[in-house]
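$ ./design --mode recover --in tokens.txt
reading tokens...
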């Protein structure tokens, strides 16, 4: 795991500009909460955290990279945003039960996490995923198939949930489109 940490610390030491928040959030802002607690898993420089906190949510922002997390913490502080950063090697065991009104995971795929993410979401809360697909036709994102979504895989991460939004842009090759080669889903955890 130190290799992963070192790799991302190196990347964030060179590039400290948070890009735009994930399209799964910006394209669906009409259905996102403006109150409550969110978790941004593998937050990187925290574009999703900054977006959600600016909407009024309290945000837990977790990432393995100390460099990314300290940069986000400074930015949150200077903007007076309610973001609690944590440097952590994310595992299923680290996730609490039924704490969050929204969990966002973008451009990070660890197949041991979806059941714990569902568990960490409050009944009625939202689970948001976005990342690259195995069917992508654009030379962006990971090439290792372990980090690419299989067809129908996103739906399998949110069993017994109501699907509120879904998009698969695997065939989109427009490099200027923030969803090219990616898919997203937003699901509401059932209350019953
Ligand atoms: C491609 S970046 C995505 C960042 C952000 N979510 C986004 O969409 O821009 C992947 C992130 O996963 C983090 N990461 C990788 N392995 C991790 C682990 N085991 N635990 C926590 N974070 C991890 C990296 O530090 C990096 O910030």
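writing sequence...
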């Amino acid at each position: 795991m130190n290799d992963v940490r070192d790799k991302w610390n190196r990347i964030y030491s060179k590039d400290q500009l948070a890009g735009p928040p994930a399209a799964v959030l910006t394209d669906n802002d009409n259905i996102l909460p403006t109150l409550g607690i969110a978790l941004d898993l593998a937050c990187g420089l925290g574009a999703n955290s900054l977006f959600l906190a600016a909407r009024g949510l309290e945000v837990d922002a977790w990432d393995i990279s100390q460099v990314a997390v300290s940069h986000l913490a400074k930015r949150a502080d200077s903007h007076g945003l309610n973001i609690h950063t944590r440097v952590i090697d994310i595992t299923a065991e680290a996730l609490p039960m039924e704490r969050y009104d929204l969990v966002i995971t973008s451009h990070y795929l660890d197949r041991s996490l979806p059941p714990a993410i569902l568990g960490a979401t409050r009944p009625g809360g939202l689970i948001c995923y976005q990342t690259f697909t195995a069917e992508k036709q654009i030379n962006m994102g990971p090439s290792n198939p372990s980090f690419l979504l299989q067809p129908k895989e996103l739906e399998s991460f949110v069993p017994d949930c109501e699907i509120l939004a879904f998009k698969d842009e695997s065939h989109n090759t427009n490099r200027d489109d923030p969803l090219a080669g990616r898919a997203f889903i937003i699901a509401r955890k059932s209350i019953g």
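exit 0
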